[in-house]
Design a protein that fits this description.
InterPro entries: Transgly_assoc. The protein is mainly alpha-helical and 85 residues long. It is 73% helix and 0% strand. Helix 1 crosses helix 2, helix 1 crosses helix 3 and helix 2 packs across helix 3.
């Protein structure tokens, strides 16, 4: 996550993972929400940089980026697994 520390990354990861879980109608635990939020933020930041967009800093913008990235990860996981986990 850009512009936030490790503790804030864990907190934002948990929030973003939970929001993505609610949006995508998925059922995961707290640890998976944290992992999903952090990895989602990393993936989405990489995607934004690859298309030439500089990801905005700050915790609000990174939370939005993390939610979108986490939703993308859930979507891709469902496409690979072929179920609604």
């Amino acid at each position: 996550m850009e512009g936030v520390g490790w503790l804030m990354a864990i907190i934002l990861g948990a929030i973003a993972g939970w929001i993505a879980e609610q949006i995508m109608k998925s059922d995961m635990g707290l640890l998976m929400n944290i992992i999903l939020g952090i990895v989602g933020a990393l993936v989405m930041n990489a995607i934004l940089r690859a298309v030439g967009v500089i990801p905005p800093g700050g915790w609000i913008w990174q939370c939005i980026v993390a939610v979108v990235g986490a939703c993308l990860l859930i979507f891709v996981w469902r496409m690979i697994r072929g179920r609604t986990a």
